[in-house]
Amino acid sequence: MSTSREPLRTPGEYVCRVLSLEVPAEGAQDPEDLLEAAAVKLFVARARAVDLRFSPNARSAVIAGAVCRRLSGCPF
Q: Given 5, 7, 53, 75, which residue has the most CB atoms within 10 angstroms?
């Protein structure tokens, strides 16, 4: 399986357009605000799928928000 922003034009390829998710505002520091953004919610859900004990704290919420912004809210 592969994901990309552009079609690869390979045999058997299926193209499914996925919209970007909402990301927190640049410079946001409030963990509650960060954790409300759709992209960060997905980030946390996927982290919990790997480790059920994952619980975002203030620092990890800021980091997750930054990662989601860098990925422009792409959900893959």
A: 75
